[in-house]
Design a protein that fits this description.
single chain, alpha/beta, Oxidized Rhodanese, domain 1, Rossmann fold, 5-stranded parallel beta sheet, 16 helices
């Protein structure tokens, strides 16, 4: 019997055992593995499930692709459980040899392979037991992604109650995000909220940033950032509670509002230059035009026509300056806050040194 035939036979037998409920499972829980070294997490769900939300660091090796999962789900919902099972086994059996090779490659590089599906059910169980029967060292995550999500939601609520934050405020274009990222490079703990959300927070905030991030992924990124030291102070950017489609946790947002604050100021010319560099690479021109159509509902018809003319003429710097003076700057309420320090046209090094000293107080 060939290796491929052996794989299919083992898989089919295991599926039968699983379906009639006669298999005993050995499961790992996320809390026990999250800090282990040389471990690889494999998400066996479809590509679209993985894209929507997954455990950070996990790789995606789907047992059923998007179309296959959709068909199996339709059979389960509208026809019968038995036909859905048969179709799932049919699809997976064909790709078992290829899947097995991928896992053999992982086994060469990692001490532990942990697979998970949505709830720790059929998909991860069938694959784990099949490969275990062939002598592979592989485990499954009990409860799947949903158990992970439940665990980090609870821990995140606890940790957000413990961390301290120091918030950077300033008008659009004062390079707050640049400062946050330089601080992180220099070993200072930060919460880079715009990076986690993959959005800059304004109407044009998604320009040039291709993939949207789900709320679940954003929460996971926050958890990853603070889990190793939930009692530390983190530098973050003063944001509204909404960043694109993402909503900040109320505990975090309240903590930002009550935190020590630093004000970053820069000239209008410098701010316009910074914004043009962030938003206006050549590849973004079409997307800017599309987003500008959404922006017109927030301004007068006359101003919209003026801005569109400037945009088509590529008079970007003057357009940015006008938009900031007439629309963005008046919207900010940062002047109502008290600041422990205000920097005007300061260097990054000066800001970093002040923050480092403040963190030692």
């Amino acid at each position: 019997m060939s290796r491929s035939s052996q794989l299919i036979l083992i898989f089919s037998r295991i599926c039968c055992i699983i379906f009639i409920g006669e298999i005993m499972l050995e499961e790992l829980i996320y809390e026990d593995i999250e800090n282990l070294n040389n471990i690889v997490l494999v998400d066996v769900r479809s590509e679209i499930e993985y894209k929507n939300a997954h455990i950070p660091g996990a790789i995606n090796i789907p047992i059923l692709d998007n179309d296959e999962r959709r068909e199996v789900g339709t059979l389960y919902d509208r026809v019968s459980y038995e036909l859905a099972k048969i179709k799932a086994v049919e699809y997976v059996s064909k790709k078992l040899p290829e899947l097995y090779k991928k896992y053999l490659d992982l086994e060469k590089n990692y001490e532990e392979i942990v697979i998970y599906c949505d709830r720790g059910g059929y998909r991860s169980t069938a694959l784990e037991k099949t490969f275990r029967a062939l002598g592979m060292h592989i485990s499954k995550l009990g409860g799947g992604y949903k158990a992970y999500r439940k665990y980090i939601t609870k821990k995140l609520d606890e940790y957000l109650g413990r961390i301290k934050v120091l918030s950077l405020y300033g008008l659009t274009g004062t390079h707050k995000t640049y400062i946050i990222r330089r601080l992180e490079e220099d070993g200072i703990k930060v919460l880079d909220l715009e990076k986690y959300a993959n959005h800059r927070g304004s109407i044009f905030g998604s320009v040039g940033l291709k993939e949207k991030v789900s709320q679940k992924m954003f929460d996971s990124y926050i958890y990853e950032a603070i889990k190793k030291d939930p009692d530390a102070t983190y530098i973050t950017e003063g944001e509204s509670r909404r960043i694109g489609d993402i909503i900040l946790d109320e505990k975090l947002y309240t903590k930002m509002l009550s935190s020590d604050k630093i004000l970053i100021e820069a000239s209008l010319d410098e701010r316009a230059k910074n914004i043009s560099e962030d938003y206006l690479p050549k590849d973004n021109e079409e997307e800017i035009l599309e987003t500008f159509e959404e922006f017109k509902k927030f301004i007068s018809k006359e101003r919209y026509e003026k801005y569109k003319e400037m945009l088509l003429a590529k008079d970007y710097i003057e357009l940015i300056k006008d938009m900031m003076k007439s629309y963005y700057d008046p919207k900010y309420s940062y002047k109502n806050y008290e600041y422990i320090k205000t920097f005007k046209d300061a260097s990054y090094e000066d800001i970093k040194e002040f923050i480092k000293k403040h963190l030692t107080l």
